[in-house]
Amino acid sequence: VDCEVELAETGGSETFIHARHGDIELTVQQEGIHVLSLGDRIPVFMDPRQMFVFDPGGKLLATPDRGALAS
Known about the structure:
- By secondary structure, this protein is mainly β.
- The protein contains no helices and 7 strands.
- The strands form 2 sheets. The protein has a 4-stranded antiparallel sheet with strand order 3-2-1-4, with no helix packed on it.
């Protein structure tokens, strides 16, 4: 998925990238230190087995280790 970088922050030995694809907001955790600028276009591969999924209100819907959570 092609995304636009909105913020990139380094936390220790990994970089957290806040990105957008249309109206979908993503936070990507990438190993290593990466220098990105606001507005950069980056490709993002999303492995569903590694995703945390939240509803628009911020409620956790699914986790990598437990899959979909009951409502």
